[in-house]
Design goal:
Blueprint lengths: L2 H10 L8 H10 L6 H9 L2 H11 L13 H8 L1 H14 L12 H19 L8 H8 L3 H9 L1 H13 L4 H8 L4 H11 L4 H9 L11 H21 L3 H16 L3 H21 L10 H16 L3 H32 L10 H18 L3 E8 L2 H8 L1 H17 L6 E6 L2 E6 L4 H16 L3 E3 L2 E3 L3 E8 L8 H17 L5 E3 L5
Parallel strand pairs: 6-7
Antiparallel strand pairs: 1-3, 1-6, 2-3, 4-5
């Protein structure tokens, strides 16, 4: 049969899974640009079971919200429309089952693999962008929906495909084309089109086995297709008969397509099993005896060694050497992580450096935009710092800066960050804080420093700071990160001009 013949049979098949009612409604609503978050929240609120699932997920570590939500409308407001839509679609599709109860297709294994795809997708995309990963999570979950459709439409043929795949190293898509006449990427894509899936889901379904076949100019979708492709490789490490092969392919492909280094790759692979188990629990599932990738690779290496070596002693020595090497690699990785952290810190004061501050502020602004919250920035500068260096020496100046950071840390919340912006100037980022509240924080800093005795070489020094504050609400303001810094800097200049040892909040001139 041609692939078009196969598609006709699938679309007419009584075994074709039915799209859940919530998913149908949600896809219909999502296609209307005028539809707001309230309409989606209202729809979900009418389904008590689905509402409970959404609230459980929203209040879990899956989203890490700072405050607990108790209603669907609160969840929709905090998470955003993309997150709530993707969450609902995930619950809906995980509930799909065939109409024919005699079908022996293993839903449990299929959705377990699908969930692994989705979790791997999340881990990969968050190494690229720290927010707005929810739509890509559902794309990862549904990338192999065509396998489900083919297995239910051609149960006998697909059983043969699964058996052949377990005996050989042939690609599942190749076997589908040989035995049925069309592979799951084509069938899944065509059926999903009839379900009115958006492009962000359609493109990965069609191209996730061969991302190079995606030739459109949409750069965002191209990245998503590559991410979904890589997530499938991770799932193959966990579930295929040849984990070593897919482990090497994943390392090579993630480096060449996304520029990932060994640190990022290992971080993803180390977290995957824990994340899968936690996510499965949140979705109401349980995965039995899930091994870590390290354990899988160790067993695969051990099995390979037994096959290739003749003498038991050589085999034991090789396994011992491998374990030792893995232990050394783990120690090396820990050292790398430690060095990575050092790169983010200012060597003198121990607070974050300018480069880290720039990236952190960018991410916090994006998070504030998503949550529709206010973010404030304090720029603090030591008054007349040149006198300490010129009159008492640079070692005294260095002591003043280090002691200053120690005093400031005590006056801030544990999750507020201090960074050395340059010289004797410091930046403090206050998440979910208005300019008025930031003024109180800055005033507390100013008073604690003004009242602190800086003692060095039996000499007591009095130190004061001037502060400038600016706030931003990204969802309502068109300000950029550089605008925010510039506003805080202008406020700092006003504090200096008006006599130092004071706090000024930036006010935009009309």
């Amino acid at each position: 049969m041609t692939k078009d013949d196969v598609l006709k049979i699938v679309l007419k098949s009584p075994s074709l899974p039915t799209l859940p009612a919530v998913a149908c409604k949600l896809l219909s609503i999502s296609s209307n640009e005028e539809t707001g978050m309230k309409e989606i929240a209202d729809m979900v609120s009418k389904d008590l079971s689905l509402s409970a699932k959404v609230l459980k997920m929203a209040n879990s570590a899956f989203y890490n919200l700072p405050h607990k939500v108790s209603t669907i409308h609160q969840a929709a407001s905090r998470l955003g429309i993309n997150a709530i839509r993707s969450l609902l679609l995930s619950f809906s599709f995980l509930s799909m089952r065939a109409q024919d109860k005699k079908n022996n297709f293993s839903y449990e294994l299929f959705w377990e693999r699908s969930l692994a795809n989705a979790v791997a997708t999340k881990l990969i995309i968050t190494e690229i962008v720290k927010s707005d990963w929810e739509e890509i999570f559902i794309a990862g979950l549904l990338q192999d929906i065509g396998e489900l459709i083919l297995a239910l439409s051609f149960p006998h043929e697909y059983k043969e495909i699964v058996q052949e795949a377990s005996r050989s190293d042939k690609d599942i898509s190749e076997l589908e084309r040989q035995i049925i006449g069309a592979d799951h990427t084509f069938i899944g894509y065509e059926v999903a089109k009839t379900w009115n899936f958006p492009d962000i889901l359609l493109a990965p379904i069609r191209h996730h086995h061969c991302p190079k076949s995606y030739i459109n100019s949409d750069k965002k979708l191209k990245v998503i297709v590559n991410v979904i492709y890589l997530s499938g490789l991770i799932t193959n490490i966990l579930y295929s008969n040849n984990p070593l092969k897919y482990h090497q392919i994943f390392r090579n492909e993630s480096e060449s397509t996304l520029g990932f280094n060994d640190v990022i790759i290992d971080r993803i692979l180390e977290r995957i099993t824990v994340e899968i188990n936690e996510t499965a629990h949140l979705f109401g599932s349980h995965i039995e005896n899930q091994k870590t990738i390290e354990q899988i690779l160790q067993e695969a290496n051990a099995s390979l060694s037994i096959i290739n070596l003749t003498y038991d002693q050589m085999n034991r020595e090789l396994i011992a050497a491998k374990v030792q090497l893995q232990r050394l690699n783990k120690e090396l990785e820990e050292n790398k992580k430690y060095l990575e952290k050092l790169v983010q810190l200012d060597s003198l004061t121990g607070v974050y450096n300018h480069g880290y501050f720039q990236g952190y502020l960018e991410n916090e602004i994006s998070l504030a935009a998503r949550k529709d919250t206010t973010l404030s920035l304090i720029l603090a500068d030591v008054d007349d710092f040149k006198i300490f260096n010129d009159k008492y020496g640079h070692q005294t100046g260095d002591f003043i800066l280090k002691e200053l950071c120690t005093v400031m840390r005590k006056s801030l919340r544990s999750y507020d960050i201090i960074a050395r912006y340059g010289g004797e100037e410091f930046a403090i980022v206050l998440a979910e804080t208005t300019g008025k509240d930031a003024q109180g924080v800055a005033e507390k800093l100013r008073q604690s420093i003004c009242g602190h005795s800086f003692i060095y070489n039996n000499k007591t020094f009095r130190v004061t700071i001037s502060c400038g504050i600016a706030e931003i609400r990204p969802a309502a303001n068109a300000f950029t990160k550089n605008d925010l810094i510039d506003f805080a800097d202008k406020a700092l200049f006003e504090s200096k001009k008006n006599g130092r040892n004071m706090v000024t909040v930036y006010t935009q001139k009309k």
